């Protein structure tokens, strides 16, 4: 990844790693000095400004934090840009929203059934975990097209629970 | 019970940060500590630093940390004199306290009759009434007839708070804002109460609008000395569970502190309380206080009181159980400076504070003057959904509130936990809010103000984060490097890709 862009909101920074210790950002040359700590963090001196960066363990997203304040962005290379353009929006129907278990637990109660129309924020099911009854709420308004679990069923983290068609 | 003053060895019937906290006190008092642990806690600091440790076989907490016969047999076989129950689990269980005494051992906590009386919120309310302490209007008896309860609720006026008689920590608690949802929510509270406390009974009280949660620390011995150590402000709560506490409160004047302290002492005297305890109150906007409940154990947030009053509450709890009398008087107890505690829980604040599970991949707690870290984790700890999500408590003390907030902010910025999401970003957000800084917040602070929002980094910080990640990806996938004219990116790293690669 010699040339890449950092995309965040509407802002784009074009970067290029050049000679060791030099990075060009939007045409300006900056000195970089990076070390990886044994605990996994990265310490980067950018023209002498100190940044201690933690990487999130979510591989799907570019999530980092500096001083425990989260910074999200996309890293884009010429290659990934092409792939993204080629894939377009084919991979997912944006009107279908999947609700997954945020943690392992036991479905203690389903408050809706298949075919139900739900409002955004409406309670859908109760997941017992960590000795708490956690109510999972509808992230969007729509129709429950599929209820993938039954009451008293144990679920794993990330397991598909409910599909909603907006 | 063994004769007073003969405690030499203590079994700690708990886990996590509190088991380690108690073990430290036990060892510093020159006593032996015995840990009991479930197999998934084998690597935990409270096990590896103990003098002796014994396995509680089984998977569910009923088989392990709640297994009274097994814990008692370990206690007897290992020859301990006393059992410290910590908080949660068996700490407020009168049957356990009785069983400990029946086994000839000392239960480090109040007498079983006191646990019973204060453990039921309804009988505690009755006791508070007798001690002439204001209580929130509601039922004294648990609900038996839902229609009758509905009528009482209507006469008090909605919103109505439904609470578990045998509970605490927000479990089995619901707010009904109208008669229509009352029945359903009573049922929900009751089923949660049954699961959490093996007691389905619930009662109702008037739901105060935007109160503050203020609690008083008490210490009592069996020679009738009852003292209070001021208040803790615990209004930053989500789902009725505390996240940030401070001592002293930003709004309590000395006169009100004295009134509330005296009320707490009165209720302790009313039941001949012994040991450490916490009397919880709600404070309304007009600064009227109402009795909530008594927690008959060491409280999670006890360290802030320790920092401000210069006392080790856990050591005194043990010493009093050993028969010691308190040598100081109320007049000699003076607060110095300000302390804040932030609970670092494995939860995702951006996602409704739902529990976050996984392995702790790396852990670097904060240090520095005035910083205390009471933690139960280490690198490799598996955070599962079987236990409470509390990982650690970060406590900051400084000479005044403003400096304590600044110190806590700095310490939260430096705290590093990877592998699970934590409440640290939430705590940082809170400490920067005008309502918190100004000290004018109540128990609905999170509900009213908290909207998970992305931070707005400077361009330079964004560049740094982006460059760091780009360097990292490049070194993780060296084969992807095809541009032969460019410098090998590994040389951007001062310690080379091999030096730092994980595992």
Structure explained in plain terms:
The complex is a heterodimer of chains A (166) and B (503). Chain A has 166 residues and is mostly beta strands. Chain A has two domains: 3-87, no CATH class; 96-165, OB fold (Dihydrolipoamide Acetyltransferase, E2P) (Beta Barrel). Chain A has one helix at residues 78-87, and strands spanning 3-8, 11-17, 22-25, 28-36, 42-46, 49-55, 63-66, 69-72, 74-76, 96-100, 105-110, 117-118, 123-129, 132-137, 142-147, 154-155, 160-165. The longest helix of chain A is centred in the middle third of the chain and has 10 residues, at 78-87. The mean pLDDT of chain A is 84. Chain B has 503 residues and is an alpha+beta fold. Chain B has four domains: 9-108, Rossmann fold, CATH 3.40.50; 137-206, Dna Ligase, domain 1 (2-Layer Sandwich), CATH 3.30.1490.20; 212-449, ATP-grasp fold, B domain (D-amino Acid Aminotransferase, Chain A, domain 1); 459-500, no CATH class. In chain B, 34% of the residues lie in helices and 23% in strands. In chain B, helix 4 packs antiparallel against helix 5 (112-119). The model of chain B is unreliable at 479-487 and 497-503 (pLDDT under 50). The chains are: A mainly beta (166), B alpha+beta (503). At the A-B interface, strand 1, strand 2, strand 4, strand 5 and strand 6 of A face helix 8, strand 16, strand 18, helix 12 and helix 13 of B.
What is the topological layout?
The complex is a heterodimer of chains A (166) and B (503).
Chain A: E1 3-8, E2 11-17, E3 22-25, E4 28-36, E5 42-46, E6 49-55, E7 63-66, E8 69-72, E9 74-76, H1 78-87, E10 96-100, E11 105-110, E12 117-118, E13 123-129, E14 132-137, E15 142-147, E16 154-155, E17 160-165
Antiparallel strand pairs in A: 1-2, 1-9, 2-3, 3-4, 4-5, 5-6, 6-7, 7-8, 10-17, 11-13, 11-16, 12-15, 13-14, 15-17
Chain B: E1 9-12, H1 16-28, E2 32-38, H2 45-48, E3 52-56, H3 68-77, E4 82-84, H4 94-102, E5 106-107, H5 112-119, H6 121-130, H7 146-156, E6 160-164, E7 174-176, H8 179-197, E8 202-206, E9 212-220, E10 226-238, E11 241-247, H9 254-270, E12 275-283, E13 289-295, H10 302-309, H11 313-321, E14 338-345, E15 347-348, E16 354-355, E17 358-359, E18 362-364, E19 371-375, E20 382-383, E21 390-398, H12 401-414, E22 416-418, H13 424-431, H14 434-437, H15 445-449, H16 459-476, H17 496-500
Parallel strand pairs in B: 1-2, 1-4, 2-3, 4-5
Antiparallel strand pairs in B: 6-7, 6-8, 9-10, 9-12, 10-11, 11-14, 12-13, 14-21, 15-16, 17-20, 18-22, 19-21
Helix pairs in contact in B: 4-5, 7-8, 12-13
């Amino acid at each position: 990844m010699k040339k890449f862009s950092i995309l965040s909101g509407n802002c784009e920074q074009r970067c290029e790693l050049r000679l060791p210790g030099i990075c060009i950002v939007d045409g300006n040359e900056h000195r970089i000095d990076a070390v990886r700590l044994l605990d996994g963090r990265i310490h980067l001196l950018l023209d002498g400004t100190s940044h201690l960066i933690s990487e999130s363990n979510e591989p799907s997203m570019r999530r980092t934090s500096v001083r425990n304040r989260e910074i999200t962005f996309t890293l884009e290379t010429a290659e990934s840009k092409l792939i993204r353009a080629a894939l377009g929006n084919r991979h997912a129907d944006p009107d279908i929203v999947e609700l997954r278990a945020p943690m392992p637990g036991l479905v203690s109660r389903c408050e809706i059934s298949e075919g139900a129309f739900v409002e955004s924020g409406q309670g859908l099911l109760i997941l017992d975990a960590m000795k708490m009854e956690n109510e999972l709420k509808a992230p969007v308004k729509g129709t429950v097209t599929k209820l993938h679990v039954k009451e008293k069923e144990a679920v794993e983290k990330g397991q598909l629970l409910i599909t909603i068609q907006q | 019970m063994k004769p007073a003053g003969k405690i030499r060895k203590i079994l700690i019937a708990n886990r996590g940060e509190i088991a380690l906290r108690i073990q430290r006190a036990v060892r510093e008092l020159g006593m032996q500590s015995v840990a009991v642990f479930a197999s998934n806690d084998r690597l935990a600091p409270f096990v590896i630093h103990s003098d002796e440790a014994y396995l509680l076989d089984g998977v569910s907490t009923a088989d392990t940390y709640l297994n009274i016969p097994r814990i008692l047999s370990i206690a007897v076989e290992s020859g301990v004199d006393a059992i410290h129950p910590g908080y949660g689990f068996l700490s407020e269980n009168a049957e356990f306290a009785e069983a400990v005494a029946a086994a000839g051992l000392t239960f480090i906590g109040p007498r079983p009759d006191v646990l019973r009386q204060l453990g039921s919120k309804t009988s505690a309310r009755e006791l508070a009434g007798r001690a002439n302490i204001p209580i929130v209007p509601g039922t004294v008896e648990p609900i038996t007839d839902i229609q009758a309860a509905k009528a009482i609720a209507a006469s008090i006026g909605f919103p109505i708070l439904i609470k578990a008689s045998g509970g605490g920590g927000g479990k089995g608690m619901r707010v009904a804002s109208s008669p229509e949802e009352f029945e359903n929510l009573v049922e929900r509270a009751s089923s949660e109460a049954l699961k959490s406390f093996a007691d389905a009974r619930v009662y109702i009280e008037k739901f105060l609008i935007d109160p503050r949660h203020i609690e008083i620390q008490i210490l009592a011995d069996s020679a009738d000395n009852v003292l209070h150590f001021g208040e803790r402000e615990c209004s930053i709560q989500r789902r009725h569970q505390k996240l940030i506490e401070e001592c002293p409160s930003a709004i309590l004047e000395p006169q009100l502190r004295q009134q509330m302290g005296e009320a707490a002492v009165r209720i302790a005297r009313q039941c001949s309380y012994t040991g450490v305890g916490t009397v919880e109150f709600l404070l309304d906007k007009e600064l009227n206080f109402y009795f909530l409940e008594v927690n008959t154990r060491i409280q999670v947030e006890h360290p802030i009181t320790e920092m401000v009053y210069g006392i080790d509450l856990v050591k005194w709890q043990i010493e009093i159980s050993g028969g010691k009398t308190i040598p100081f008087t109320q007049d000699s107890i003076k607060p110095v400076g300000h302390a804040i505690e932030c609970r670092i829980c494995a939860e995702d604040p951006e996602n409704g504070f739902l529990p976050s599970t996984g392995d702790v991949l790396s852990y670097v707690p904060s240090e520095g003057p005035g910083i205390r870290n009471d933690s139960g984790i280490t690198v490799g700890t598996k955070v599962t959904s079987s236990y409470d999500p509390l990982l650690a408590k970060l406590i900051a003390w400084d000479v005044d509130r403003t400096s304590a907030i600044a110190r806590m902010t700095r310490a939260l910025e430096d705290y590093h936990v990877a592998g699970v999401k934590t409440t640290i970003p939430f705590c940082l957000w809170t400490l920067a809010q005008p309502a918190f800084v100004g000290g004018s917040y109540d128990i609905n602070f999170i509900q009213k103000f908290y909207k998970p929002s992305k931070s707005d980094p400077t361009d330079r910080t964004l560049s740094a984060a982006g460059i760091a990640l780009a360097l990292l990806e490049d070194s993780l996938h060296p084969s992807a490097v095809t541009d032969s004219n460019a410098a090998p990116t590994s040389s951007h790293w001062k310690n080379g890709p091999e030096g730092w690669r994980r595992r």
